[in-house]
Amino acid sequence: MAAPQPFLRFLPDEQATDRLGDDLAAALRPGDVVALHGDLGMGKTALARAILRAIAGDPQLEVPSPTFTLVQSYDLRIPVHHFDLYRLSDPEELEELGFGEATAGGVALVEWPERAPDALAGAIHLFLREHDGGREAEIQAPADAAARIARSLAIRGFLDAGGYGGARRTFLLGDASIRAYETVTPGKGERLILMDAPQRHDEPIVRDGLPYSRIARLAQSVTAFVGVANGLREAGFAAPRIYAQDLDAGLLLIEHLGETQFPAADGTPVKARYEAAAGLLAALHDRDWPQSFPVAEGVDHTPPPYDHAALAIETELLVDWYLPHVKGRAASKAELTEFRRLWSSLFDRLDHSEQSLVLRDFHSPNIIWREKKKGLDRLGLIDIQDAVFGPAAYDVAALALDSRITIPPSLEQAVVEAYCAARRKPDFNREAFAEAYAIAAAQRNTKLLGTFVRLARRDGKPGYLRHLPRIRTYLERVLAHPVLADLSAFYRAHRLFGGRHSVSVPIPEKAMVLSAGLGTRMRPLTETVPKPLVPVGGKPLVDWGLDALERAGVAEAVVNIHHLPELMLAHLAGRKRPHVTISDERERLLDSGGGIVKALPLLGAAPFLVLNADTLWIDRSTSNLVRLALAWDPARMDILLLLADPKTATGHTGKVDFTMDADGRLKRAHESADGFIYAGSGILRPQLFEVAPAEPHSLNRYFDRAIAAGRLFGLPLDGHWLTVGTPEAIAPAEAVLRRFGRAP
């Protein structure tokens, strides 16, 4: 495959450099390295400063030159590390500066990259040179990065063509879809919003030759947003004005409706605002809407029907994603058949309910509160592109049972009452509305349970799982309506809400801490102290692991002991959390596999964590043990191992252990130079050990069996991993801990 063509940009002045910094910042992702080439005075530091300020969203951010410190790090939306290699005496010093760690989880900006060319082979290379009284920037990038840079430069061209040349671009958000948004600040005038939403394509086929988005009637392009916005605004609702549009490119420049979010500043619901939003829905549903809305000359948008196929594929997210999440297995054919039968009859009833334009996601994240406006104009409407024609009650349910804010029953009732009181159509039927509201609310919250698990499992966004308890509570509330009696019985029979199987983050209750080894490689230290009690960074090795278990919420740690057991018992006796239970191997040392077999009666029948006492790590953000629990899928996995990237590891002197495919399945690395190190932790099914003897043997036996069955999976660690196997490994480990502020 031919290399992507380089990008050329002329930079006549400092403002042009700043704009290029904006454009590059919008394109960068964690793992990117930008190598800045150029002679002294060519503006490498100025461009790095522009990129940093753009990522920070702060044009005044102080960005000192790293000439003397060699590296400056910035904890921004994306962590950024600014390197200056001019004073580097040897390319091997680059790793001592933390370059591998920087590129694993953030962006590296590198001045004087010629000092370490081999380390920057896959980087984005940017060359600055004098040209025509200014400077020329030439950008060479690998294919993936080149595509992102091309998109960002196309956005700059779109702004220039719309009369907004020189405008500042600042990341606003990327939502749970294919869209991204930026704040655009012109030199004069009001700030605007850039919507970047390329047309959907290349989506996987899921049913009847169609992708999910088409069956669910989701917008395929920005044409839908423009049409719905124009239609709503024409009817007197506060949808964004469109200032510039490129329908083919999927780019819109739209009105900035304001900063004030719909909830109160502390995130709690404001009753008056929810009642005002209910009044808006009443006005929307009292209107007779045209079937199509204008988009451009000769182009209209017709919102699709919210039909049975769309409603059904949304509800089935529950059986596809949520049910396996809480039950540890896929739905059976009988369960799926009954689920579909129950919902089909409910969709038939919805067909006879009042139909109207349905905004579909009418809840707090998509409403802007405009305090100084009046009437309908107080409520700015965003994220409206997926509007459909369907049950009017759906939007009321989305508002009154807000998926992002806990709505108590009293406020839910107030919202419904405000809506009904504001309805003006003579044929509005309160009883029929109540039934449609119950069905629509059940459908929406069923869909959301599946959606949030899918976002966590498939898309790597575990934060969405925190909403699950709220959604289950809403479901239990609405399923009390008589029309949902059969559905309620099905959900309760399958324990789909409530009870111990429905925790939002399913952390194993127990962990096995492997601490019984002799520590022969740590001699002479281990002649008088068991290896788990050797101090590293100001505390014993075993406490690093126990503290990680405590932070993750693990209730009980089973710790095996053998060498100098009295010292271990004395130390562990003072541990409050997690509760420590001893597995005594004083009579015979059983190795890792045998130790687990002996401890099985203490570990119980549920999947458990395993932790080596001589490894530790520094979490970058979320606990890596929590990440393991979120990634655990018993339907596919017997073992899930935490893995370390050699580039972000300290103390490991051997080869890599495993290679991993795109689905996360592991195989032995054998002679491969690329791969991962087993990080000494994982989740295991106790059934693996049911017929195993309590004889000395290694866990590797079970790893190989899981590989043969296609059920050994891995999760790369997010942070820095350390192993302390010899006395000489202590000092480097403590240096890393100090660098991250984890040791005195």
Brief sketch in words of this structure:
With 744 residues, the chain is α/β, with parallel strands linked by helices. The chain has 22 helices and 34 strands.
Please provide a written account of the structure.
The structure is a single chain. With 744 residues, the protein is an alpha/beta fold. It folds into 3 domains: 7-161, Rossmann fold, CATH 3.40.50.300; 261-502, Aminoglycoside phosphotransferase (APH), C-terminal lobe (Aminoglycoside 3'-phosphotransferase, Chain: A, domain 2), CATH 3.90.1200; 510-739, Alpha-Beta Complex (Spore Coat Polysaccharide Biosynthesis Protein SpsA, Chain A). The chain contains 22 helices and 34 strands. The strands form 10 sheets. Strands 1-7-6-2-5-4-3 form a 7-stranded mixed beta sheet, sandwiched between helices. The longest helix is centred in the middle third of the chain and has 28 residues, at 430-457. The two termini are 51 Å apart. Residues 499-504 have low confidence and may be disordered.
Give the helix/strand layout.
Elements: E1 7-11, H1 14-27, E2 33-37, H2 44-56, E3 71-74, E4 80-84, H3 93-96, H4 99-105, E5 107-111, E6 124-131, E7 134-140, H5 143-161, E8 168-174, E9 180-185, E10 192-196, E11 205-207, E12 210-211, H6 212-215, H7 222-234, E13 242-246, E14 251-255, H8 271-286, E15 293-296, E16 299-301, H9 308-315, H10 317-327, H11 333-351, E17 355-358, E18 367-369, E19 379-381, E20 388-391, H12 393-400, H13 409-422, H14 430-457, H15 468-478, H16 485-493, E21 510-514, E22 535-536, E23 539-540, H17 541-552, E24 556-561, H18 565-572, E25 579-584, H19 591-603, E26 608-612, E27 615-619, H20 624-631, E28 639-644, E29 649-650, E30 658-660, E31 666-668, E32 677-684, H21 700-708, E33 712-716, E34 719-723, H22 730-739
Helix pairs in contact: 1-2, 1-5, 8-12, 8-13, 9-11, 10-14, 11-14, 12-14, 14-15
